[in-house]
Amino acid sequence: MNAQDIQVGARLPERHITAVNAEHIKQVALVLRDSNPIHFDLDAVAKAGLGDREVNQGGSTMAYVLDLVTEWAGSRAALRTVSCSFRSNVFAGDDVVVGGEVTAITEDAAGALVECTVWAETNGRRAIQGSATVAVPRRKAR
C-alpha cells in the first residue's frame, strides 16, 4: 500500500472472527495470570450477571483490531497510535466483525499519517470503538 492509494472514507477490509473459542479465553487467562474468574468459571460468570459463557479478555478483542490495522498498513512498524474504549463484552461463541475507516490523511515528504476509526462488533453492538494512526510510505519513483 502507498500513501497515494488511500482516500478519506476508504474502509479497511473487514475481518471476521467466527465463534470466539472458550478454550482460547481460558488459555489467555493462564498466560496473563488473569485471575478474574469470568474468563474461566461459568459459576462466576452467572454470579456476575453476565450470562452463561466465558468472557473474552478486552485485550484479546482489541488484538483483533490491531491485527486488522497492521495487516492493512503492511507492518506492525507502521502503527503509530491506537486508542480504544471497551464498550461491551465479547463472550465465548460470539462472532466478531472488525473494521475501520480512514478519517484523515496528513501528507509529508515520506508519505502520510493515516488516521482511522476502528471497531469490533458482536451481536449488533460495538464491543470496541477507537482510533488508530498508521504511517504509510509514498510510492518510490521509478
How do the strands and helices of this protein lay out in sequence?
Elements: E1 11-17, H1 22-32, H2 42-47, H3 58-73, E2 79-86, E3 96-108, E4 111-122, E5 125-137
Antiparallel strand pairs: 1-3, 2-5, 3-4, 4-5
Family: Belongs to the enoyl-CoA hydratase/isomerase family.
Protein name: Acyl dehydratase
Domain MaoC-like: 19-109
Mind explaining what this structure looks like?
It is built from 3 helices and 5 strands. It has 142 residues and is α+β, with helices and mostly antiparallel strands. It has a single domain (3-137), classed as Thiol Ester Dehydrase, Chain A. Strands 1-3-4-5-2 form a 5-stranded antiparallel sheet, covered by helices on one side. The chain is elongated, with a radius of gyration of 17 Å. 28% of the residues are buried. The model has no long low-confidence stretch (mean pLDDT 92). One of its GO terms (molecular function) is (3R)-hydroxyacyl-[acyl-carrier-protein] dehydratase activity. It comes from Amycolatopsis thermoflava. Pfam families: MaoC_dehydratas. One of its GO terms (biological process) is fatty acid biosynthetic process. This is Acyl dehydratase.
Rg on CA atoms, Å: 17 Å
Which architecture does the CATH hierarchy give at level 2? Answer: Roll
Number of domains: 1
Across the major sheet, the strand order is 1-3-4-5-2
According to DSSP, the number of beta strands is 5
What is the name of the CATH superfamily?
Hotdog Thioesterase
Low-pLDDT stretches are none
- Helix amount: 10-25%
Globular, elongated, flat, extended or rod-shaped: what is the shape? elongated
CATH topology name, in short, is: Thiol Ester Dehydrase, Chain A
Report the portion of residues in β strands: 35-45%
Tell me the span between the first and last alpha carbons: 16 Å
